[in-house]
Amino acid sequence: MEYKLPLTSRRADVVLAGVHPRTGEDSYVVVELKQWSRAEPSESGEHLVIVDGMPGGEMLHPAEQVRRYCEYMCDFLGVLSGKPNAVYGAAYLHNAMDLDIDGLSELVRDERSRLFTKQRRGEFLRYLSERLSDKPGADAADRLLSSPVAPSKQLMAYASKEIREREQFTLLDEQQVAYELVMGAVDRARRADFKQVVVVTGGPGSGKSVIALSLLGELYRQGRSALHATGSQSFTQTMRRYPGRGSTRIKNLFKYFNSFTDAEQNGMDVLICDEAHRIRETSTNRFTPAAKRTGRSQLDELLSTARVPVFLLDQHQVVRPGELGTVAGIEDYARTKGYDVRFVSLDEQFRCGGSRKYEQWVLRLLGLADGGPMEWDGDDAFEVQLADSPQELEAFLSAKPGTARMTAGYCWPWSEPRSDDTLVDDVVIGDWARPWNVKKDRAVGDYPPSMLWASEPNGFGQVGCVYTAQGFEYDWNGVILGPDLTVQDGQLVTVRSENKDPAFKSRKSVSDSDFDQLVRNVYKVLLTRGMRGTVIYAVNPALREYLANLMRVPRVQRD
Fold first, then answer.
1. Residue 123 pLDDT
2. What is residue 46's predicted lDDT score, i.e. its pLDDT?
3. What sections of the sequence does the record tag as coiled-coil (predicted)?
4. Are residues 462 and 438 in contact, defined by beta-carbon separation less than 8 angstroms?
């Protein structure tokens, strides 16, 4: 009952385990139970249904739901590898008659997506008896529950074709070094039965995620088992949407850092931890049942899962209390476990059209690099402008070709959307006002959900925060430096009282010095999202003047 699918929070209602009456092999039937009394197909999508009395619009057809559960189990459970006929699936609508769900049975595809009503209880029992004999099923159940968890060879072959053919990448310089270092480590780890940790560091746009996807595709082509994981919902959902577009199976290769609490030791060849600066102290939270709080650190879980754990990170992007993903932290812990650690720096390899010079200017401006603030005297490959108002900033972005987004420090309240599916204009500066991006993972009217704000065209016009911008890039970047950043005695300082981020509210959990460091990291992230250029507006007049004295380029031109 309530069988938890591996490496996910999803649960199947019932899995019946037994012996197949014809083959004598282990046989499993996944059953999705529905209390629905009435349902009908929806015109909104092939696998969607409308359920009587259920709020929230369309739902997934229960037969399609259970079919996907079966497919997922075959893709990730070693005990089912090479046994495609060991798993069956059925949806049982035990409160509905046939006429109550007229049209739903037409969507049944195969033996993993059967559909039965209470009117067809006899058929359901025959379906079960044809797949489960009267012999005890305890051994089959034990084999399922203790099965190693890793992508199957069939899934790896499929993923290799999908990722390698859809996403064509050319790795340059240190990117190729990192790629070959990981592939070599995989070969050595398997031959010598040892673990090697690879840490890849690089600033925004240095190609960390390109390396991750290239590795994923090549590893699958070679028949190696691997998964991709991050600690960011926005980033993971975008990876599922684009590299995984059109394929649920590819989407399932992109996990979260907290998916590996009970993963098998060295159960995979490679675990690619992208955005590893988002690693937290523990995978549990206040909602985790006491019985499941193991006390293990999240870093220990990630290091244990694969023979070659790969960490890709920019440690200047630690922006939340409790995030521990630093090079020193990963290295120190790995060495205490006796693991070999290798490093690759991508600091000299930046995105096409990006600017190493600009990133260094940002780091020194924010006190994240030695040497103090430096003048900006321009870069032919990257445009930087100062705006005198948020109106100028927005107009500058609107006039540019390509993708553009506005972001700001978390210095304004963030309201829930109105009942009419409109957003509240929370970010108010003088007579200019715009809403934050959508808070949650569902679209509001024409506004995209939070994790797609950076990639969907309708994201322009809302102001993004660090939690939705981190991990993404767009052509043109507009940044509002909020009133939590100002200048005193010629030095850039942070102002805690002006910050509205709930994560920073408690001085007990976030000291003033930690707040100062985190806010500087936040602005470093926001200021380095642009691929072709950045326009900056500072709310604080003293900071505007300070920046003007550092900039030896023309201001944004007024109409």
1. 94
2. 73
3. none
4. yes
Report how far residue 377's alpha carbon sits from residue 556's, in angstroms, rounded to the nearest whole number. 15
CB 27 within 8 A of CB 86: yes
Bridge partners (DSSP) of residue 271 are: 227, 309
Instruction: Say if CB 476 and CB 397 are below 8 A apart.
Output: yes
> Would you state the pLDDT for residue 287?
54
Out of 64-78, 143-157, 535-549, least confident range: 143-157
Q: Token match 């690089």: residue?
A: 202
Kindly state the tokens that stand for 23: 């083959």
Listed residue (215, 212, 299) closest to 260, CA to CA: 299
- How does 227-248 read in b/e, with b if 16+ C-beta sit within 10 Å? bbbbbbbbbbbbbbbebbeebe
Report the Cα–Cα distance between both ends of the chain, in Å, rounded: 66
Rounded CA-CA distance 317/469 in Å is 11
The first and second tokens of residue 390, run together, are 């948020």
Measured between alpha carbons, how far is 31 from 66 in angstroms, rounded to an integer? 7
Assess whether pLDDT exceeds 60 at residue 413.
yes
Ramachandran angles phi, psi of 175, nearest 5°: -60, -45
Q: What is the DSSP string of 261-286?
A: TTPPTT-EEEEEETTGGG-BS-S--T
Q: Which of 41-45, 134-138, 186-190, 462-466 has the weakest average pLDDT? A: 41-45
Please tell me the distance from the alpha carbon of residue 16 to that of residue 89, in angstroms, as a whole number.
Answer: 10
pLDDT tens, position by position, 324-354: 788 888 999 999 999 988 888 876 444 434 5
36 to 40, 90, 97: CA distances (angstroms): 11, 15, 10
- 309 forms beta bridges with 271
